[in-house]
Amino acid sequence: MKLPHLFAASIIALPLTLAGAQAQTQLSRNEIVNSLQGAQSKAEINAADVRAQALQNIQQYPGDNATTSLPISAQLAKLRQFNVEITFDFDSDRIRPESYETIGVIADALHTPYLWGQVFFVVGHTDAKGKREYNLELSQRRANAVREALVTTFFVPSEQLEAIGLGEEQLRDPSNPDGAINRRVQLINVGF
Amino acid sequence: MSKSLWAAIFLLVGTIIHTQGAYAQTIGFADAIKILSSSCGEDIQKYCKTANIGNGRIQKCLAENEARISPRCKADYAGVYVSLQTRLAAQSVVSRICDRDARRLCSGTEPGKGHVLRCLLKAQPSVSADCNQAIDDAGYR
Hints:
The structure holds two protein chains of two kinds.
Chain A: H1 16-19, H2 29-36, H3 47-60, H4 73-77, E1 81-84, H5 100-111, E2 119-125, H6 132-153, E3 161-165, E4 184-191
Parallel strand pairs in A: 2-3
Antiparallel strand pairs in A: 1-4, 2-4
Chain B: H1 3-24, H2 29-47, H3 57-64, H4 71-92, H5 94-97, H6 99-105, H7 115-122, H8 129-138
Helix pairs in contact in B: 2-4, 4-8
């Protein structure tokens, strides 16, 4: 049986059966603020370019798993960022209620004056199980759902958030492609 | 007047002040939405299986299923959305309430991008009670 493609914590790699119950990690607003603040100026990175690079990576280097990282990876890795666990229904972009609080904590962080006026990428990642094109599309829809919740339910200004799905194109641990450590939502501060 | 009467008046005034203080307080977005998951999580999984949280879909679904959801969820869910709105409202009045403090204490600060509020956060001991309260209510501290 195929395991659910859940985004999970990069920090706590839990078996999937526990992921739901453990979703309410003691994530603090200040932890997120401290990890994200301090962007000096606008990083010249366009969300559409990042999406296009992920798709191109699949087309140019087909195969079961990605063998190359995206050209933009190194630049993204230098930016202020934070990883969170958000759980979704199997094969779906529906956020499960146990993850509402996590999105609320992100909202609390984004509303503080420390992060005002900055633009953030909400980046969805999957593990390497399943087809790459499928994972890319699913992670984009999930990133969209997180962005939508932040903007509509939690009133984060829409111009501050860009949703990007990278599927399995940028694994956190390439030596463990199917591992839960790869399933995550990344917040990246791309600056003012 | 007897000692016990004074004590009663003291208690009463204390209660009124405390209650008013509590009215002014707001809760954060995470604390508000946590109530939705704990009071309505099961109902959401039962009656709103395809609804996502964004765009008021869960709220709408719970309202449509009000006859079926648990009493606890029914009692709590609308309040969650009021709390979210209350926090937003508290944030929207900060710059007005703190305007005089900003001019008094942060005149050299370049406005925009949260700079003035960060100045006011640093200047907390010199900031007026009203502005400090507004900052607290907005969850900016």
